[in-house]
## 1
Amino acid sequence: MSEYLLRPVQTLGGGQKQRVAIAGALAEACKVGVIKAVQNLLDISEVTALWVTHRLEELEYADGAVYMEDGRVILQCDAASISKFIKAKQSSYIDRINS
């Protein structure tokens, strides 16, 4: 839909106008915000926020989390359990390197 963003409405066909109207309605009613950084949560209230991170310390801001490897969901649960899982995985990896 982004190709229609800067086009004047008069230049759109009937079907295109419908699609743009539907996209606008869906975006307005959206209850999920995709954010780049956890700091952006300061501007969001009453909305589910979705962000990708590699920083374990950011999990403290999450109600739930998903751990993925190679594009596959490995674990989905509360943030504290994800944090424990990752720390155990890191510890196991470090033990293998040191032995």
## 2
Amino acid sequence: MSIYVPHSAEIEDCPLNPRERKFPDAVIQEAAQTELSDEIFEGRERVRGITIDSPATQDIDDAIWLERVHGQGLKLQVSIADVAAMVPIGSAMDEEAIRRVQSYYYSFDEFVSPMLPTNISENLASLHQGEKRPTITFEVWLSHRGNVKGLKIKRTYIENEARYSFYGANCHIINQRPNQDLRMLTEMSRLAEHLFKQRAKRGSVVDQDAYKMTEFRSNIRTTPSYIMIQEFMILVNTEVAKLLRGMDAPNLYRNCNNATEAASSAEIAQISDQLRGRAEASTGDEDIFIERATYGPVSEGHSLLALPEYSHVTSPIRRYPDLVVQRMLKTLVEQEESPYTQEDLARISGYINERTLAVIESRPGRKKNKRKFTQRERQEGRLKYLEKNSFKKAVAYACKHNLLKEDFKEEIIKRIREDQIGPIEAYYILIIAKNTDTGWRELKTLALEWVSQKQGRAKNTLSQICTVSGQTVKVQYHDEGTKTQPQIRAFIYVNGEKPLRIREASNEEDPQKAKADAALYALQELSTKNPLPLELIGKNM
């Protein structure tokens, strides 16, 4: 079978701006003629499942279910929409899908630019509540302690039993209401927490290459239900990659081969999430100090997730590599020959990588110089002109994940010396960044100098604890002295609990100067603590 892959010269045939993409008439007609026939459901096992997603989501491609099996452990089922059953290789829809590579989501006006026509992406393939849909189910068996024992892949169908929003699922998990499905949500949340901790132990630096992009941006990324979906998708993607590599079977791998020099499209400035393939069509303040992840037919490892192999398979509605992997898995289950050769996969991944980069490079603000830059030239030029808000996000990211490249460090130093930072950047450098590296220690020293230059800076910087940690934090200054010997000391109260008492106190007679000094002493003390007390960092870290 001949596999269609666009040539490099064809990259711009499909508009690089996702907002300008229109489906050809042949693609729309083909999608309109597609239906869920009895033949599609023939031989499939029925499985149970619920979905958790944003209320605005129409392209739902994953459902989850968890059972305890006596004497065998936990059976986690992640059912993914069987897009391959509706979009044949070589069809008009397939060729348009590879040209587009993925769906894009615009947060500011809720605009969606889908990879597949809406009759497929938002109707026939989408796992709507109460609707019968063909799926591929990944059945992961785990011990009662949450350790993976095995993986089974099945051709299935599902009728979504309940659709939860992230907020609704969180309410049920937190309140632990006495309902079978809701008890299952609580148990799923416990399992996800265990999986998250396991990843942290093995050295997973970040999780955004596995995250999903929530539609239209909301503050749910660290809630129990979101972490649950995140961890289950990472688990399936990991186990599939492990299975295919172990069998020496063809596969498209997601590669990040250097933890300090690898990431995907919006992982820095936006700390974005691609777990479910929702690519935010942002203005592109990424690649600040790390390279991007790529696809390829050979596994090179995923250092950011601390994995020897990783694939994308959980978002076939929204991401073409997932559809490719799904097709290969189906032939594996049906004991048929893979539809793709290694050469096909090399051409497909090459186009996807090139197209993805071209879309990013075409964004506003990135067209000023058409010359082909090296990655280092791109980084150095962009660091210099990085606008304030994006720089702030990049500093926060670097501090939280202990990623500091020399050119980025020099840019931070330059901005500190030119008085181009604010209390938030100072807070992240002093409080969040680890104290184990000479680069960070140098930045902490400079940040303390910056804070001490003006009287209000220390208090403003210390007050960021509440903003960053998400906790109820109060910074108070207690007068412990006498009339002849003033002594102001800073105390930090977290959620009304016993306060953290700063050792050094100010002896200044001027109350405002004394409070400023006390705040500075607090920053000095906290900046040397490693690790910092969790309550000051916050659960969102």
## 3
Amino acid sequence: MDALIPAAVEDQQDSGVLASITIAQAALKTGYGQFAKGNNLFGIKATGDERAANQPTAEYINGQWIQTVDNFRAYDSWADSVHDHSERWLLRALPSVGLRWCRQQRKEDGFR
């Protein structure tokens, strides 16, 4: 995971997403970098004509874990994966839940 630090720090400077959070999530999703097929550090699935790496996964469907194979985004580098992850978070996920909700959650969790 040491190789991820420069990319995460650079991305933090560009996007504002904390490098520590990026590294922690990548570590959890990939078993500390052991399972990052296609340089995909965050388990982002491919859609449409996006470049993909086909790999086994477990999905929770109708109350049961199902073993299946799916297409996950493939990246040229870990830095590309980090950039895409931050872009998706900032442009898609954050606006859908709203900044007000995020602030409220932080407050409820004891952060100011």
## 4
Amino acid sequence: MAMAQKIRTQKLPAEVTGEELYTIFGKYGAIRQIRVGTTQETRGTAFVVYEDIFDAKNAYDHLNGYNVHNRYLVILYYQATKAYRNMNTEKARQKLEEIKERYGLSGDLEKEKDRLLTTPRRE
């Protein structure tokens, strides 16, 4: 299984806060970000992003099955490919085309970047 700096926590109790998670997960390394799920679909989950991959592994090794408010945490390495599998790419492609049209961009983004970032010289 490939490791990552980002881990996903499941089975969180509803009353757990981001501050509590920071206290629990911060013992294992520097944390870049914690995101606690608040919607119906994401409630009970959180993402913890560590600065270092080894800190994420250390937290995974120590906290999987850890008891928080009488619930046992399930810790998983985050796998982006699973998240993108369900993504509607056609809808995203249409939105991208709308944005390109709105800002007058062509298909060649490298050419557009050069056009937009170069400033004319004053003489």
